[in-house]
């Protein structure tokens, strides 16, 4: 895989932006297809399956993509050590993906009954269980590419995958409705595996003999990121599943579908910031040690993220009467009166992402787990309270705002403590 030099950083930034915009566009078009053919009620019914696919897309292959970016970035000028590390990742990722596939196939009927209320749809679970092996492979390839700052390969994988999946998704959803929508959601993530394999074949890592000597040491490093990914990937969708069930019970399937539509819109544009920080912020922060250097970098990235989000969200809000029917359908018009609550919560959420990536870069497992679990429990508790007060869908959005405001404030305080007590001369008791 190629390396990005100082002369083409701007070119790399453009490619990364284009890649994420293509993913956002592809996600919106898929969401549009599902919204048109299934409506809010169907969106509510398929919401749990979407959450499970999201979980597997993050933990497939061990969920080590951030760890791969970190260690590949650190080893990119040491070819021998880099080859050994990537070999360990290959073994680790395959074993993890195989175990998930085995469990998914064996428990397919039970999982289908829980997700769909219909065990006869077990075959969709088997398809997903096998497909996540491809998810894991893509995570491995893109993680290595980002660690090497090979934005060209990363961008082409993303753009090619999105172009491949949309025609197939249209055929599936328009002809098979619910089953077609479920398969399209799986294919949306699986489609990247084909272009990823093309770039893998061209790389120095292809057809290399697997090296088991350092597997134990590297697996120990990677397991920290697996645990982080599992906690992060499971906690949020699991909480969504619980809140969605409460929302359906208290306000009906249509309300759950409206909320699901806003969640998918949110995850699409929030993904842009996640990729931006993973590609540009985390490789920088990994090698920084000085208090002044770290603080100035963090402040700069927080300002950039806030500014970009404010500009984009303002446009979405001002023209919500155009964008929501365009991106979803006219059946989601109720979201026009609620979208501002989602955007306010997401503003605080995306602002705290920068500090969150420091935790990931420093492999601070305990802090990460505490943060993820605390967010989930707080959101679930607030949602339950507001729903019990008869606030229906608006109560879930208010819970979203309050939880993210609290998390942002705690993140800022935590960052101040980190700077002054761990990097600074001041000792905190």
Automatic annotation (TrEMBL):
- Fetch the InterPro entries from UniProt: Poly_Biosynth_Transport, WzxE
Broad class of the protein's primary localization: membrane
Entry's transmembrane regions:
9-37, 49-73, 122-142, 154-173, 179-200, 224-247, 267-286, 298-319, 339-360, 367-387, 399-419
- Record's bilayer topology term: Multi-pass membrane protein
Per the record, the domain of life is: Bacteria
Q: Where in the cell is it found?
A: Cell membrane
Claim: Cytoplasm is one of the keywords in the record: no
Q: Which UniProt keywords apply?
A: Cell membrane, Membrane, Transmembrane, Transmembrane helix
- Protein name as annotated: O-antigen translocase
Tell me the classification of the organism that encodes this protein: Bacteria, Pseudomonadati, Pseudomonadota, Gammaproteobacteria, Pseudomonadales
């Amino acid at each position: 895989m190629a390396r990005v030099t100082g002369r083409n950083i701007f070119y790399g930034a453009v490619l990364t932006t284009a890649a994420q915009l293509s993913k956002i566009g592809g996600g919106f078009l898929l969401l549009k297809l599902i919204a048109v053919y299934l409506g809010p009620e169907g969106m509510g019914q398929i919401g749990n399956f979407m959450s499970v696919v999201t979980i597997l897309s993050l933990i497939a292959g061990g969920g080590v993509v951030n760890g791969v970016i970190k260690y590949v970035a650190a080893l990119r000028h040491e070819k021998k050590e880099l080859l050994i590390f990537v070999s360990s990742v290959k073994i680790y990722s395959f074993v993890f993906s195989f175990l998930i596939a085995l469990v998914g196939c064996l428990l397919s009927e039970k999982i289908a009954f829980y997700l769909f209320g219909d065990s006869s749809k077990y075959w969709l679970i088997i398809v997903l269980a096998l497909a996540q092996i491809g998810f894991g492979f893509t995570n491995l390839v893109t993680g290595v590419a980002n660690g090497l700052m090979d934005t060209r390969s990363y961008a082409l994988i993303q753009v090619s995958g999105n172009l491949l999946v949309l025609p197939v998704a249209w055929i599936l959803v328009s002809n098979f409705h619910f089953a077609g929508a479920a398969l399209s959601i799986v294919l949306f993530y699986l489609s990247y595996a084909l272009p990823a394999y093309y770039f893998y074949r061209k790389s120095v890592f292809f057809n290399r003999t697997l090296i088991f000597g350092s597997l134990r040491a590297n697996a120990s490093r990677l397991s920290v990121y697996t645990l982080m990914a599992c906690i992060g990937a499971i906690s949020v969708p699991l909480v969504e599943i619980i809140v969605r069930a409460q929302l359906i019970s208290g306000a009906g399937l249509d309300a759950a579908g409206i909320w699901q539509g806003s969640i998918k819109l949110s995850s699409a544009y929030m993904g842009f910031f996640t990729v931006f920080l993973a590609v540009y912020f985390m490789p920088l922060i990994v090698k920084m040690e000085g208090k002044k250097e770290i603080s100035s970098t963090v402040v700069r990235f927080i300002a950039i993220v806030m500014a970009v989000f404010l500009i984009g969200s303002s446009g979405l809000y001002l023209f919500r009467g155009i964008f929501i029917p365009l991106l979803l359908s006219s059946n989601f018009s109720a979201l026009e009166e609620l979208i501002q609550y989602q955007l306010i919560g997401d503003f605080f959420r995306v602002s705290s992402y920068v500090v969150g990536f420091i935790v990931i870069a420093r492999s601070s497992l305990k802090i990460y787990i505490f943060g993820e679990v605390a967010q989930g429990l707080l959101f679930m508790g607030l949602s339950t309270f507001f729903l019990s007060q008869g606030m229906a869908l608006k109560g879930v959005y208010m819970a979203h705002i309050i939880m993210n405001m609290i998390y942002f404030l705690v993140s800022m305080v935590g960052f101040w403590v980190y700077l002054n007590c761990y990097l600074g001369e001041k000792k905190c008791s």
